[in-house]
Amino acid sequence: MNLVVELRQYTLRPGTRETLIELFEREFVTGQQAVGITLGGRFRDLDDPDRFVWLRAFPSMPERRRALEAFYGGPVWREHRDAANATMLDSDDVLLLRGPGFAPEPGAREVLATVCHPTGAAAFDVHAGRHLGPEHAVHRTEHAENDFPRLPVRTGEDVRVWFGPAEPPPWPYRRLRLQPVTAWEVG
Question: Strand locations in 17-168, DSSP E?
């Protein structure tokens, strides 16, 4: 399935990550699902105690806009936005992607995510054919204009993102070591 996916990486105020995770899991998961947003993995960055990483997906760009308007104009966000925003220093590190979405296997303790800046699509396809399989949930930059500018996304770059261990790519990349957030932790 080829979804529109947001990979969101938040930089948080020191010591507030668990506060945001608890609020997110208690209020924002069901609040977003209620307006048609598919929530993917939600993670602690194991290399930065003040980062929260998460994914959400939409069937199309028009559905993304509709769902974001419904959520950010709705009662759940209105009631809890001040508490959420109080934990954040930066919520604008967002990649708009196309791909299958990703949620970790139940019980996973660590997930590797790679954000790569290949020099070209053909070269990446060769690399992916040798080193990445369907289990890696490869995502590519969605170059459509962000039609919900209230939430900025990174532009002017072409990235590939995949999940799981694999050979390092021959281009600039960043590996994220992520710990899945599970409902029982915050329940």
Answer: 38-45, 51-58, 88-99, 111-116, 139-141, 160-163
